[in-house]
Amino acid sequence: MNQKNPYLQMDQQMVGDIYTSQEVMDNLTVLCDDFGSRFAGTPDERRAADFICETLNRYGLKDARLESYSYAGWSRGTATLEVVEPIQRSLHCISLPYCPADDTTAELISVGYGSPAEYEGLGDAMKGRIVMAGSASPPDLGRWVHRKEKYERSVLGGASAFIFISESPGVGPETGSLQNDQPAPIPGISICKEDGEFLTRLMERKGTVKLRLNTTDVNEPRTSWNVVADLPGKENSEEMVILGCHYDGHDISQGAVDPASGMVLVIEAARVLALYAGEQLKRTVRFVGFGTEEIGLTGAFRYADAHEGELDNLRFMYNLDAAGGASRKGVVLHRWPDLVPFFQDTAKELAANVPVGQQLHPYSDHFPFVLKGVPTGHMGDAEAPPSGRGYGHTAYDTLDKVELENLRKGSAVAARLALRIANTDNFPAQRRSAEAVQTLLDTDPGLEGYRVSLELRKGHQTS
Ligand SMILES: [Zn+2]
After folding, report:
1. The domain at 77-216 falls in which architecture?
2. Fold of 8-74+221-432
3. 72, 84, 94: which is closest to 221 by C-alpha?
4. pLDDT digits (tens, 9 = 90+) for 93-119
């Protein structure tokens, strides 16, 4: 096979630079070690946004800027969990973002993995109880069941509080928000796998187990920022492709893999595209660092609203959330069959391991764009079997876990794909109509959790 690569020289320059530079790891080190978790509402969140903005400016991007927006903020308070019957015991726990301040004493009930069938099986038994669910997805269901779906099914079932149990041993409690950009209706906390096993044994051995849960979290409005910067297209600066990733992490760790390993791929792609492809870009490549993803994809929702007028000209939004981890650096399209041949041909041209597939979930920054019909995908591997988060969303998502080699692979793929999406004269996808979006929302198996959250919202409006 002797496929001609029209971008060979730029490819060689960009990839050669990426593979002979430490810059991408240096940027990751600053984000993680200097700014910590960059959690929404902390001074380090703002310092991280400024750092990303200054770095993009230094790389020669045009008009790198912060775009501010208001959102429903949340600050962690102390949380305590006590077994009060049939024995007394204190267990370590943490509130999950958007948990309200509360004091609840109630009987504990387990919903196992938290599959739809397990929730249905509990029925009225959930009413007034503290419901606990494991973080693992049900092994026989064939899809990921997100924490938020389990929490919302608990609320719909009338639970008084929710306990989320880590599936991985030795990593402590797993965090993650209960709601998107709004205070949660009932308290939700997380405990480690080992304490979850203890509570399960206690129920099996003694029958009724009663718990007291006290939370002191604060819900109050705040401001955050998206970072936006452009390499303008020389033929058409209105049409564009976006490389994006959130920069905020969860407060209990550095968020090194999720999300910072993906954020530095966006920054590195910007660096090499500016150096070697900037003069030959036909259309604009825009780089976006989204704020407050972990508590509601809020930065991406605000971006999609504020830039509504540009969305017809947005060819593709490529979400690099956490993409510098160990996963293959492919393209997971969000139900865009017409784009498969384009990306498969491109993958051949790159002579790199870039699997192309289809899959959709509503739990990262691409989703606000999906709702608006924009062609989207994320960097990852659609063929990988579903797995848990491991140390993700725990205190152990730290810089030492990230490998320079993976950052290089991801940066190279991101830069080379962005160049092709911007420069191809016939990009084979167009914005979906509102009707087509609605059909997707109503029927896609990966959006079951989104439909549950709509049910919860409806219930709250009428009651
Ligand atoms: Zn993320």
Report:
1. 3-Layer(bba) Sandwich (3.50)
2. Aminopeptidase (3.40.630)
3. 72
4. 999 999 999 999 999 999 999 999 999
